[in-house]
Design brief:
The complex is a heterodimer of chains A (about 300) and B (about 230).
Chain A lengths: L2 H17 L1 H38 L2 E5 L5 H13 L3 E7 L1 H16 L19 E6 L5 H10 L5 E5 L2 H43 L1 H10 L3 H42 L9 H31 L3
Chain B lengths: L1 E9 L5 E10 L4 E5 L6 H8 L7 E6 L2 E2 L8 H5 L2 E5 L10 H10 L5 H14 L15 H13 L5 E5 L7 H16 L3 E6 L2 H7 L2 E6 L2 E6 L9
Parallel strand pairs in B: 3-8, 3-9, 6-7, 7-8
Antiparallel strand pairs in B: 1-2, 1-4, 4-5, 9-10
Classes of the chains: A alpha+beta (about 300), B alpha/beta (about 230).
The complex binds adenosine-5'-triphosphate and magnesium ion.
Chain lengths: ~300, ~230
């Protein structure tokens, strides 16, 4: 393909997009809307995933120990737990430590000094000793719980997972995925139909030209080229608009997320991370949808 | 140059466009294909362009067996023929010059060649003064001369014309036919499908007469209505 050929094809494509501008705008807008929703749901999903990931390593699983556990058995149990795959860290919290922490929390919350209800509990501590463990990610939660249950007769009283919050996030994430997938598929089909018709108009508008090209002996690639490039251009513009709009919207979306979920202390994905994925995703989707619709349109309406 | 053996074209609806036609047209010949409406002239031209295929028989053009041509080869096959239609088929948004240059551009010709060939072809058809005009500013004859210039600008060895004078008044028709004769004089084989009785009679060229898809007459230096 020569440079001149390339210039010819691109300028023909641009000319025809401008000529059928109403259809071009409709194509770009529907595709843009579709990709905008793709971008928004990706932003949310990526961060929900990331939060779930962080939960696994931040929120500990508490393994409460039987009160009669000897120090020796405790050490044995600790190494057994450490040996469970995906467990990254095990920390021993003695009954005294537990009480101390509880007291700290209480005084934190009430900002009270002086005697509290907990005074005098040192001698009759109701809190059990425990291991607090961290795992790589919430994905392994069920697996680790299962493994812990196998060790139950080695002195474990009870296993407490902070599972509810994770389940909540997980469900939210799944609902979000399904809903956005449905919307994206619907909009994707609509934009394909509109782009298909845009290219068909372009083909119809250039019947004589195609006819002449055919008789002079232009190759199929040459005749089809401008229409394919039209699809590519619609794809690129349709991808660019949602990217430009969603970039400044990322921070507001995150603060909305924080407010809706009432969560704190999580780290979010950076702009760079989100947009390097999104740029690729939107361009690939946009160009694929654009080119796929123009190829179908040409095949139907242009027998060369 | 063109060798047809028993070519038959049966359209999907059963109509016979051509029925067992056998003929031979040599390099450098000037041939009229005549016959009443529906006799198969356009069918023959479209077959030479490889727009349609014979349902039976073999057709060899420019040394290519048309039945063996793959779809990928068709554009390259077509580059060795020029074609002119009754309705000119010019691009209305391009000037005369651009319309002719277009035929070179789409074959990827260097702009240097385009700048050299287009003016000389326009001079050949007598349109050098109209190079900047748009088709709607031209008479029918001038439009047909433009399309003729476009057909020959890539210097094809074969020129096909399907009723090139069908939309023109007799005087203008003569201009076009004498241009075709000139082009033939430069060595191009010319095949003209036509109704124009006067022209055929006076030109004294080879005349192939079709009737219902069958060759009923094929005479050197013939006329339109010579008795059988
Ligand atoms: N695409 C087609 N489908 C079906 N039948 C066709 C088709 N094209 C031509 N025919 C038939 O084939 C026969 C020959 O038609 P053709 O167009 O070759 O005639 P022609 O000599 O060019 O006529 P005219 O002088 O009117 O242009 C006619 O009977 C016509 O009805
Ligand atoms: Mg005809």
């Amino acid at each position: 393909m020569s440079f001149r050929f390339f210039i010819y094809i691109v300028s023909e494509a641009v000319r025809s997009l401008i000529k059928n501008r109403i259809m071009t705008i409709a194509s770009v807008l529907t595709l843009g809307l579709c990709l905008f929703i793709v971008s928004m749901s990706f932003m949310l999903a990526a961060n929900l995933d990331y939060m779930l990931f962080q939960m696994g390593s931040r929120m500990g699983i508490s393994v409460y120990l039987r009160a009669d556990l000897s120090e020796f058995s405790r050490h044995a149990l600790e190494s057994e737990i450490l040996a469970i795959p995906h467990v990254t860290n095990v920390e021993y919290v003695s009954a005294e430590d537990a009480l101390g922490r509880f007291r700290d929390q209480l005084s934190d919350n009430t900002s009270q000094n002086g005697p509290t209800v907990l005074d005098g509990l040192e001698n009759d501590n109701p809190l059990p000793a425990s291991f607090v463990l961290n795992i790589e990610s919430v994905n392994y939660w069920d697996f680790v719980e299962n493994e812990l249950n196998k060790l139950k007769d080695q002195g474990i009283e009870n296993v407490a997972l902070g599972k509810q919050a994770a389940n909540y996030l997980n469900t939210l994430n799944n609902v979000l995925r399904v809903v956005s997938l449905v919307i994206i598929l619907g909009l994707g089909v609509i934009s394909m139909v509109i782009i298909f018709n845009t290219i068909r108009l372009a083909v119809n508008g250039r019947k004589t030209e195609i006819n002449i090209m055919k008789y002079v002996g232009a190759t199929d690639a040459f005749i089809r080229g401008p229409f394919i490039i039209e699809g590519v251009l619609i794809g690129v513009i349709g991808a660019g608009i949602p990217l430009l709009i969603s970039y400044p919207m990322y921070d507001p979306v995150l603060s909305l997320l924080v407010r809706v979920l009432l969560v704190r202390g999580f780290e979010f994905r950076s702009h760079v991370y989100i947009f390097s994925v999104l740029i690729t995703l939107c361009l690939v989707l946009g160009i694929t949808i654009g080119v796929a619709s123009s190829i179908t349109s040409i095949r139907r309406h242009l027998k060369v | 140059m063109i060798v047809a053996e028993n070519i038959t074209k049966t359209y999907e609806n059963g109509a016979k466009g051509l029925d067992s036609v056998t003929l031979r047209i040599n390099q450098g010949e000037f041939v009229f294909v005549v016959g009443s409406s529906g006799s198969g002239k356009t069918t023959f031209v479209r077959m030479l362009l490889k727009e349609i295929e014979p349902t039976e028989g073999t057709l060899i053009v420019n040394g290519e067996n048309l039945c063996a041509l793959t779809p990928k080869q068709i554009p390259f096959y077509r580059r060795r023929m020029g074609v002119v239609f009754q309705d000119f088929r010019l691009l209305s948004n391009k000037t005369v010059y651009e319309n002719v240059a277009f035929a070179m551009q789409i074959l990827g010709a260097p702009s240097r060649d385009i700048r050299r060939n287009v003016p000389s072809v326009l001079a050949l058809v007598g349109l050098q003064r109209k190079a900047k005009a748009f088709p709607n500013q031209l008479s029918g004859g001038e439009q047909q001369r433009t399309s003729l210039a476009r057909a020959i600008v890539n210097k094809p060895p074969l020129l096909l014309a399907d009723e090139p004078t069908g939309n023109l008044d007799p005087d203008t028709a003569w201009e076009i036919v004498s241009l075709l004769d000139d082009i033939n004089g430069r060595g191009t084989t010319v095949v003209v499908a036509t109704h124009a009785k006067d022209i055929v009679d006076q030109m004294k060229k080879r005349v192939i007469t079709l009737r219902n898809g069958v060759i009923v007459r094929d005479i050197e230096k013939g006329g339109y209505s010579d008795e059988l």
